[in-house]
Design a protein that fits this description.
The structure holds two protein chains of two kinds. Chain A is an all-beta fold. Chain A has no helices and eleven strands. In chain A, strands 2, 4, 5, 6, 9, 10 and 11 form a seven-stranded mixed β-sheet that branches. Chain B is mainly beta. In chain B, the strands form two sheets. In chain B, strands 2, 4, 5, 9, 10 and 11 form a six-stranded mixed β-sheet that branches. Chain B has a five-stranded antiparallel β-sheet with strand order 1-3-8-7-6, with no helix packed on it. Chain B starts with a strand and ends with a strand. The chains are: A mainly beta, B mainly beta. The interface between A and B is medium-sized, with 26 and 28 residues.
């Protein structure tokens, strides 16, 4: 079982609040990812990181920001939450393979965010 | 057009049935093909992965890739109620990019 953790698991918050979703992994993986998943829809990559101090935006435009100060930690921040941010947010990590097999991603349990 | 298409279902089968889940894709550069299983209110977990074309078997699960048709399948034999979940296909190119592109998932219910 993958050792990747997300907190909180559920969050209900009012519009305009600043929130940070936490993600930590203990596998020493270089790459980390944030996905957004709505019911019945595919996972959309919103941010990823190749390593410490490296972050990139994903395919889906997002008003969130991320940081990667430590290998094991990849928090996602929304400065001002809106109802359109209501979704499930999934964090994942991978070794960062560039050859010799698939770069398997391991997922955390997710944070279900509701913005009122 | 989406890069990866997956029938969303829902799919409901009796216990013991053989289940076939499928995805089609348009990017001929995809080399790695994966199936993830996602239980309700949990994150996806890797079930199987295959490289290029061919079959791979793991217990009751068989993954098939047909690159000529850009079509992948996951077969579940002797399905169990515990197999009830959403199944997501995912694929990636080789090389340094290696980002995964996911299908939208097929929701499967196995009835006891």
């Amino acid at each position: 079982e993958a050792d990747i953790y997300q907190t909180p698991r559920y969050l209900v918050i009012g519009t305009g609040k600043k929130i940070t979703l936490e993600c930590s992994q203990t596998m020493g993986h270089d790459k980390m990812y944030w996905y957004q998943q709505d019911p019945g829809m595919e996972l959309h990559l919103i941010h990823y990181s190749y390593g410490v101090n490296s972050t990139e935006k994903g395919d889906l435009s997002s008003e969130s920001t991320v940081s990667r100060i430590r290998t094991e930690h990849f928090p996602l921040t929304l400065e001002s939450a809106r109802p359109s941010h209501t979704s499930q947010y999934l964090c994942a990590s991978s070794e960062g393979r560039t050859s010799g097999g698939a770069d398997t991603q391991y997922f955390g349990p997710g944070t279900r965010l509701t913005v009122l | 057009q989406k890069e990866v298409e997956q029938d969303p279902g829902p799919l409901s089968v009796p216990e013991g049935a053989i289940v076939s889940l499928n995805c089609t894709y348009s990017n001929s550069a995809f080399q790695y093909f994966m199936w993830y299983r996602q239980y309700s209110r949990k994150g996806p977990e890797l079930l199987m992965y295959t490289y290029s074309s061919g079959n791979k078997e793991d217990g009751r699960f068989t993954a098939q890739v047909d690159k000529s048709s850009k079509y992948i399948s996951l077969f579940i034999r002797d399905s169990q109620p515990s197999d009830s979940a959403t199944y997501l296909c995912a694929m990636s190119e080789s090389g340094s990019a290696r980002q995964l592109t996911f299908g939208s998932g097929t929701q499967l219910t196995v009835l006891p």
